[in-house]
Amino acid sequence: MAVNAKKKQVWVGLIVSLLCLAGIFFLINPAEIMNAMKTADPRYSLLTLIGIMLFMLLRAVRWRILLNNEIPTTQIFHIQSIGYMLNFILPFRLGDVARAILIGNVPPVTISRGLSTMVIERLLDMLFFVILLPFTLSTVETLPTWMQSFTRLSGFISLTAVLLLIIAANQREWVMGVTTAVLNRIPFLNNDKWAQRVEDGLDGLLIFTRLRDGLIVGALSVLIWFPILFAYYNGMKAVGLHPSIPMTGFVVSAAAFAVAAPSSPGQVGVFHAGVIAALQLLGQPELPSAAFAFGYHALYFVLMMILGAIGFAATGTTMGNVIASTRQFMNKRGKNNES
Fold first, then answer.
1. Cis omega before residue 108 (within 30°)?
2. Is residue 71 very low, low, confident or very high in pLDDT (cuts 50, 70, 90)?
């Protein structure tokens, strides 16, 4: 059942991506998009790449702090790069699972701790965009009702989840007591194994028990996105658009929400559609908007492939081994969840 469900999700993602691309290419000639990308100013494209690189470096620093500074930033950066590369290749953002497995093989970190930091990262990122979006709406005359509702809901969920994680981190004994009581009422589960999973997950929340480190992570969670704003701003300048800071922030936020939709690996289609739609809401011309969406995504893809390849070389592992380990972990986890 789980395997069939996964296959259906893969097909849904592929169909959504194809529909997005078909809609874009129906409205805008692909050859014209390619020509617009070829005429992009290489100086601004270089600045875009620099922005993305700084973004990756700051994410590695934040991840190191989330892991209690127990692993060097360089090692974390290489593992992170492998995960981002695999997100362009594997469905369901399994690159994130892959980097949790890789970091979990570096003592004293465990896979469960790695996975819990993935959750924290995702929530903090979403919370940032929910906070950023209202400051960008001065550039939009009319924001669709569904987007307003989705933003409010995402903000409420993200904030609630972060607060619950902070409470859980600081009330460890109570959480483990509740966990044990619940597991004792489910006889078909391996209570010791599941209790250990919860405890390992709580280890990944230790950052929320130290005020100083928690504040640093909070500050980094804002600072991380400034290089991406810089990258988007220069990417739009490269294709002849004239972005403002609020306009750039709105497009970045729209892209972040768009890639939450089902899609093929690498958010192909949904990213492009989200970015183009956001620029259309801002009254920008279609062709440069499409050229930016495809050009930025292409630059991001190339950089992740290069960084991922360097990461594999630096860690001494291979793509085949990492993918095999990730599939084995997911299959095992699926069986355990069913039992």
1. yes
2. very high
